[in-house]
Amino acid sequence: MKVDVLLGLQWGDEGKGKIVDVLTPKYDIIGRFQGGPNAGHTLEFNGIKHVLHTIPSGIFHPKAVNIIGNGVVIDPVVFKKEIDALIKLGVDVKAKLLISKRAHLILPTHRLLDAASEASKGKEKIGSTLKGIGPTYMDKTGRNGLRVGDIDNPNFKEKYLALVEKHKQLLAFHQYDYKLEELEPAWFEGIEVLKGLVRVESEHYINDALKNNQAILAEGAQGSLLDIDFGSYPFVTSSNTICAGACTGLGIAPNKIGNVIGIFKAYCTRVGSGPFPTELEDATGEQIRKTGNEFGSTTGRPRRTGWLDLPALKYAVMINGVTELMMMKADILSGFETIKVCTHYSYEGKQIDYLPYDYSPELLSPVYVELKGWNKDLTGLHNPEEMPEALNDYINFIEQATGVPISIVSVGPNRTQTLIRNKELV
Ligand code: GDP
Ligand code: IMO
Ligand code: MG
Q1: Which end of the chain is more exposed for a tag (fewer CB within 10 A), N or C?
Q2: Is 426 exposed, middle or buried (0-12, 13-18, 19+ CB in 10 A)?
């Protein structure tokens, strides 16, 4: 067996959570491979709307085992809240959730450092989610971090205090005011919750499962255009969000990767700072934000909106080796007389069809084609044959440009609002 990888191809919030939930019945194991509580993955079913941050989106299914991989960073405070909410909904978390001992911990001081760093950048800020992601990955690569496996160590508190001491010096450098004593009790409560759950060497668990022919889906967070290497640096997150991140974030060898499922919205959104070639800062952008309810699942911030960007999508398909696409939120584009799609960029006086190194607005502007819109409400559709012709044309256009089939078209937030175009692929 091989591991299928599901990831976002834009700037995050593509609808990964919904699709992982839809696909979980096909899998034995769902493993998150990177990111942390900066993610907000929304699932809707049976009248429940639930947002997950650290826990994989397969947790609501009776059978699947959910793994938080070594590439994930965990804030025990957020984690405890997630666990409490799941227990309230009757989920047997202890039986269905495994946590890698190699996953790094977000300390309260990481969160403070994230805020201090953003404050010091002023107008140049990244627009981070302020969850401590950047500082935690910095300590990981700087070889100072604390890991889940450390919590049973008798010198855990000492290690914690030593790292906090370092952070205090950095916070003093930033002249940042804080009250750590108000943040620590909840953090240590979260550590106790972690101690009550199953912690494993997840790379062994996953590779044994592969040998035993178990079906595994790796769940990405954020999106390819936020990747630390291939995103619009420095306006990115601090992990590898691309397919390669599933190898390092779960301990899977590259030759064990199977299908790569790329999730994208029928348009684009971005939350936080950084270039966004097709951004609409007008009434159309506002309409998409309103109809699409484009407000952050984690921070509540309004998301920036714009037309679909094909050179950016093709870039993500290339970097990830995407084998099938799934298009989300088609319902939100209903009612537009015409829909624009960016096919090229005008870049330093030339027309190009790829995403270049620097795509800041001073250098680059989008070139659009205009396609016919559709007026039909899609939210009640149950099979792809009912899709209006103009939507079919829109889908065909994207398939041709990317060279990858679109196997699912999503027409609403609910599990059931999912049109499966190629049953063999799903
Ligand atoms: P993720 O981070 O990729 O899991 O995506 P988010 O959960 O942050 O954002 C996607 C939002 O769109 C959530 O509120 C979903 O409930 C919602 N959603 C997902 N698919 C669809 C869809 O096809 N149509 C509509 N209208 N909403 C959707
Ligand atoms: P999901 O998994 C959308 C963005 C932030 C900011 C940048 C860096 O729900 O798709 P960070 O806190 O990671 O240091 O912020 O990345 N960002 C996301 N945007 N969806 C996400 O996750 C995101 N996680 C981080 O807004 O611009
Ligand atoms: Mg999200």
Answers
A1: N
A2: middle
Per DSSP, the three-state class of 412 is: coil
pLDDT recorded at residue 209:
98
* Distance from Cα 285 to the centre of ligand 1, integer Å: 17
CA distance 256 to 399: 26
Q: Whose CA is nearest to atom 13 of ligand 2?
A: 237
| Total-model pTM | 0.97
Q: Tell me the one-letter amino acid at 32.
A: R
376: pLDDT strictly greater than 70 = yes
For ligand 2, whether the C-beta of 132 sits within 6 Å is no
Tens digit of each residue's pLDDT (9 = 90 or more) over 156-203: 999 999 999 999 999 999 999 999 999 999 999 999 999 999 999 999
pLDDT higher than threshold 90 for residue 404: yes
E strands within 284-334?
304-306, 308-309, 324-328
Q: What token pair was written down for 304?
A: 């920036």
Buried b or exposed e, range 264-281, using 16+ CB within 10 angstroms: bbbbbbbbbbbbbbbbbe
- 92 CB-contact burial (10 Å; exposed 0-12 / middle 13-18 / buried 19+): exposed
Q: Does the Cβ of 8 fall within 6 Å of ligand 2?
A: yes
Closest CA to 111 of 65, 171, 62, 33: 171
Which residues belong to the active site?
Answer: 13, 41
Would you call 125 helix, strand, or coil by DSSP? coil
